[in-house]
């Protein structure tokens, strides 16, 4: 911020603002895509119910209900893709900011609970951040999808076994 106020260019990509602009979509671990999947794709009653409960908080980047309700924590089906997202999403953000595709944040913006992609725009003051946020959502969707399907199918088999 000091460099920008002195007429220089922003160069520090790894800031808290950058994290809030892209990497916390749905909460830490970029879990918004997972919450949406649970809401609209779940075949198991358990994940469908969790999807209904976690969707609204996830929009506001609150994912504790998802992390401990699904659960993601201590669940290899869902924890592994979250770890993959923790590598892929910051890599995408670093790439797009280092090549000037999206502006590096130059102001303090610590409103982590503002929904995406609005927070991406407000943090960077760059309309292209909206496009990158949508791309990140799609990428995290694709990363979570096979793991989610496997977990959903395992729960569905359990539910069928309990009924029959």
From TrEMBL:
Main localization of the protein described in the UniProt heading: membrane
Membrane topology label: Multi-pass membrane protein
Domain PTS EIIC type-3: 1-147
Residues that span the membrane, as ranges: 20-41, 80-106, 127-148
Domain of life: Bacteria
Keywords tagged on the record: Cell membrane, Membrane, Sugar transport, Transmembrane, Transmembrane helix, Transport
Record-linked Pfam families: PTS_EIIC (PF02378)
Subcellular location: Cell membrane
Entries under InterPro entries matching the protein: PTS_EIIC (IPR003352), PTS_EIIC_3 (IPR004501), PTS_Sugar-EIIC/EIIB (IPR051088)
PANTHER family, per the entry: PTHR33989, PTS SYSTEM N,N'-DIACETYLCHITOBIOSE-SPECIFIC EIIC COMPONENT (PTHR33989:SF4)
Record's protein name: PTS system, lactose/cellobiose family IIC component
Organism of origin: Weissella hellenica
